[in-house]
Specification:
mainly alpha
């Protein structure tokens, strides 16, 4: 009987899964911003690799969230031609979701 969530997946499998998810999120960000001009809808997909990284690698989720957030800011700045406040706000929400996850993980031994 397994004790923790996702314990049977190897470390290499987790890294491959996260690499694929981050790459897909990056491609969706580029395609939806540049070709379709949509800058808000795809950012909800960023939570998937960030939450999985938080579950599997704990504190390393900050790096994934920072990478995806900075990517969103840069792409949005390139497309719009100016710095806007909304990408910074979305990045802050992404980073705050990790803080909430790490606070919950310290309180519950089943999420470690």
């Amino acid at each position: 009987m397994r004790k923790y969530l996702f314990e049977e997946i190897s470390r290499r499998g987790k890294l491959i899964t996260l690499s694929c998810l981050v790459s897909v999120c990056f491609l969706i960000a580029v395609i939806s911003n540049i070709y379709f001009g949509i800058g808000t809808a795809y950012t909800q997909l960023f939570f998937i690799p960030v939450i999985l990284t938080g579950l599997w690698f704990h504190r390393k989720a900050y790096f994934v969230a920072a990478f995806l957030g900075v990517t969103h800011i840069i792409i949005n700045t390139i497309v719009s031609g100016s710095l806007e406040f909304s990408p910074f706000l979305r990045t802050a929400v992404l980073m705050l979701s990790i803080l909430q996850k790490s606070a919950g993980a310290t309180a519950s031994p089943y999420l470690r």
